[in-house]
Amino acid sequence: MPEEERPSVKGGHRGGGQAAVHAEGSFEELSASALQSHLKGMDYPAGKQDLIDHARKNNAPESVIEALGRFQDKSYQSATDVSREFGRIK
What we know:
The protein is 50% helix and 4% strand. The protein is built from six helices and two strands; from the N terminus they run H-H-H-E-H-H-E-H. Strands 1-2 form a two-stranded antiparallel ribbon.
């Protein structure tokens, strides 16, 4: 069974915690909570590029970077704003 799950998961991620494993899948499998876990410590307000830079600093997988790349280029006032935008792009 793990063989069936393997094609959608990119290997080589450091960590191994539950959130890291869950966030490794494709954009379609990404949850709002997994996205937010890679934005911990983010200072708001923040622009789209600030979110992307912070997620990269937190070793976010490509699915998180892809999601943030689909965000509108505007200022996000809080994590709630980010979650709303994530819901819009999903």
